[in-house]
Write a structure and sequence with these properties.
alpha+beta; two-stranded antiparallel sheet; 4 helices; globular
């Protein structure tokens, strides 16, 4: 069974109509560590791609791309609701807070 996720760049930094990508993931492959890693890599690449499309200009473009990518990937992993992928995401991002809550805390 294939599962499709549509990734849209974080609205905080994106254009009026954010870019989007459809990522198709075979849920059967999520039962293995290698399959979960492959799915995670697909989500990470798609997250960066949509954020690059919407944040190409400006002095802070690379910073906006990093923050947007982190938030978009956080949301994609949560939407996928696959324990192996969530565990891998947590391990790869354990040293950072979710992007948007961190930005809101800095703003206050």
């Amino acid at each position: 069974m294939l599962s499709s996720l549509i990734l849209a760049a974080a609205l905080q930094f994106a254009a009026d109509t954010p870019s989007a990508r459809t990522v198709e993931i075979d849920r059967a492959m999520l039962n293995t560590r290698a399959g979960a890693a492959a799915a995670y890599d697909q989500l990470a690449a798609a997250s960066r791609a949509v954020c690059l499309e919407d944040n190409v200009n400006g002095v802070m473009a690379e910073h906006r791309v990093r923050v947007c990518t982190a938030d978009t990937l956080d949301r994609a992993v949560a939407d996928l609701a696959a324990p192996e992928v969530a565990e891998l995401h947590a391990a790869r991002t354990e040293s950072r807070q979710p992007a948007i809550p961190r930005l809101l805390a800095e703003r206050d």
